[in-house]
Amino acid sequence: MSSSRSRPSGPRSARPASGGRPRNPTRSAALALVTAVLERHRALEEALDALPAAEARDRAAAHRIAAAVLRRLGSLDAVLEPLLRREPPPEVRNALRIGAAELLLLDTPPHAAVASCVDLVPRPFAGLVNAVLRRVAAEGAATLEELDGERLDTPGWLWSAWHTAYGPAVRAIARAHRLPAPLDLSLRPGTAPPEGALMLPTGTARYPAGTRIAEIAAFAAGDAWAQDVAAALPARLLGAVAGQRVADLCAAPGGKTAQLAAAGAEVVAVERDAHRIGRLRENLTRLRLAAEVVQADAAAWNPGAQFDAVLLDAPCSATGTIRRHPDVPHLKRPGDVPTLAGLQATLIQAAAKLLRPGGRLVFATCSLQPEEGEAQARAAFASGLAPEPVRPDELPGLDSALTPEGWVRTRPDLWPEQGGLDGFFVARFRKPG
Length: 433
Ligand SMILES: C[S@@+](CC[C@H](N)C(=O)[O-])C[C@H]1O[C@@H](n2cnc3c(N)ncnc32)[C@H](O)[C@@H]1O
Description:
alpha/beta, N-utilizing Substance Protein B Homolog, Chain A, Rossmann fold, 2 domains, 8-stranded mixed sheet, 4-stranded antiparallel sheet, binds S-adenosylmethionine, RCMT, RsmB/NOL1/NOP2-like_CS
């Protein structure tokens, strides 16, 4: 590949003025994704949906590059730092981060990584990007090795919170966040274990990270849906639900609604966000499953009837899903946690009111922050709920996730040989009477 000097003269831009296909669609899309998250504070998934109609191949490759940048941002910046005399504009820094990620983490051949990142920046910065990335190609791997990457790639406030909650395991958690998560599928009951999948003890089918879901026969047949093994636990822990009236609060995109409906429950799925309700309905249709879908604020919803069981998968900081959503550490702020914890407490009270006497509630969050898990479970007694501890036989292979109180606390560093799992908190209660 040619260096910047051999390129034709004229204005440089990653995207042609005509608005047509950019010169390097994959890198150009990766730059758009990184910029959306880091400069505009938009969710990576939202940014992916907003990409111009790039080919599917470009989207997947761009996602992979952007995810690598977001996962290792602190380390990449530390490698770039000594090579920069002054702070470049954000667009240029992000192009450098992409180049460094390709060189150091994604094994892109140096000439391709350097030339394509030079292409991404305005002409006056081409020389800088070329020179810096050539040095990263030459020296970056050695620098990277010397760094405390686990710490650099974890925002300080998360590191301290996890250190307080989990002690030295904070390092293993941070290490787990470096790798993309495997693809986990929940299966309709009665579906044969799909070929090529590792069947996990709790019934989830697991494929290596990067597996294309559309190519899995059970998914194509509408008998399976993507759901992390930990995310599949809360609905399972509601127990036998066939023929029961179950409210699924905060339901979209519907992974847990699908589990409950597939298990034979009469489900009312409550979700506030109209756009996400669309996704929930699409998913149920694809899976040929039925549920009543209600657009409402679960904190104020009053259906005038009580339920045998309620599943509350409350909105949270999502710090348990960083492996799948590497944008989370760059979007969340410490102040989000108490705000969300307040909302969770309100939702638990509302959920308790929906239960018939003797009915059961499962509360779950995909967060590693104790304020959004253990603290909520402790406070739930104030809503008149009695504990209904989870038993070890309900968590095959996951004894280490069971707390002395009978709650479930999963973390990304558990099950390291099988590829880990998302961080979730789950607690079960019964309404006395
Ligand atoms: C963790 S996600 C739920 C994931 C879902 N249970 C699943 O398994 O696919 C939380 C959801 O709660 C919704 N939500 C947030 N606040 C809500 C509220 N007050 N009432 C109803 N839904 C709410 C969000 O729009 C989001 O879709």
